[in-house]
Amino acid sequence: MSFSDKLDLIVAKRQDLQKKLSHPEDIGQQEFITLSKELSELEPLVLTINQYKQSVENINDLEEIINDAGSDAEMKQLAEEELITEKKHMVELEEQITIMLLPKDKSDEKNAILEIRAGTGGDEAALFAGDLLRMYQKYAEKRQWKFEIMSISDTGKGGCKEVITSISGKSVFAHLKFESGVHRVQRVPETESSGRLHTSAATVAVLPEAEEVDINIADKDIRIDIFRASGPGGQSVNTTDSAVRIVHIPTGITVQQQDEKSQHKNKEKALKILRSRLLEHESLKINSERSEERKNQVGSGDRSERIRTYNFPQSRITDHRINLTLYKITEILAEGDLDLIVEPLIAEDKARKLAQS
């Protein structure tokens, strides 16, 4: 099938969707929502296709003028100059369409559950985990995403052992999915009197937020335990049995929530996290069957993969997957200008997919 034939099929598909949606009484509500979403995703592509088709027509018209024996010399010269510009424009539009036709990660438009855990390095690792938490918070603010801390085990002084957050907004997972892995920091701790450089690490996991339609959890597959929430050192933070632990029996995945005073809210949060972890579990199972394909991607999403180093003495951040080094540790880690790394990662991923298409 030629490139032009592919484009005609896409335009025809859009017309078919418009026809179906013009008679909502003939389709169910759920199908109407699904088809509406499909149409909205096609619109930017069809707009670019129409621009491309117009450019092809312009080129044909200009070539006719150039090849017409009746055209005067001045008109031919103008047409030849315009033809160079138009051909360049057509190539640019063709490249845009090719990129837009690349297979999309179906989770890209989803919200995300972002988990950060302090790794090796004791208190310094916990402080670094806190730094990463604030970096993602500021990045979310810049993108006008909603950022909610669902549970946190903090150590005081800005550090945390573990934190689970929910981030919602436009294309959250598409921009955060490459953050999964081991983040390493090299700096001199404030408590280090000899000025010796310490290396510590934190693990980040980014999961697409699963909705009930993505993951259906059967009641028989889970065990829910209710208990009294407690704070550090056994100190009671709640006088009622509001903490919730949910165990997914088939996989053994366990989620615990106790931050809310309401048992219902804790259960709601726990199920939200459980659905996302089950979705990730299913994705990993599928991806392991496509291990060769995963090797060609920017990052495997494996939490054990070391992806980035933050070196404070040199004010340097290095992303090891694309050999990107930036001397902007303050802008990225402290101010949340994470797009300085995210955009090159997305571009590299697109380039690899284009090379394989």
Specify the number of helices.
9
Supply Rg.
26 Å
Major pleated sheet: 8 strands, mixed
- Record field, number of beta strands: 11
Shape annotation:
flat
SS-based structural class? Answer: alpha+beta
Strand content: 15-25%
Q: Give the termini distance in whole angstroms.
A: 15 Å
Question: Mean of the pLDDT scores?
Answer: 85
Measured as a percent range, the helix fraction is 40-55%
Summarize the structure in words:
- This protein has 357 residues and is of the alpha+beta class.
- It has nine helices and eleven strands.
- Strands 2-3-1-5-4-9-10-11 form an eight-stranded mixed sheet.
- Helix 2 runs antiparallel to helix 3.
- The longest helix has 39 residues.
- It starts with a helix and ends with a helix.
- About 4% of the residues have low confidence.
Task: Break the fold down into its secondary structure elements and pairings.
Blueprint: H1 3-21, H2 29-67, H3 73-100, E1 112-118, H4 122-142, E2 146-156, E3 159-168, H5 172-176, E4 181-187, E5 198-208, E6 222-227, E7 243-248, E8 253-257, H6 263-288, H7 291-295, E9 306-311, E10 316-319, E11 324-326, H8 329-334, H9 339-356
Helix pairs in contact: 1-2, 2-3
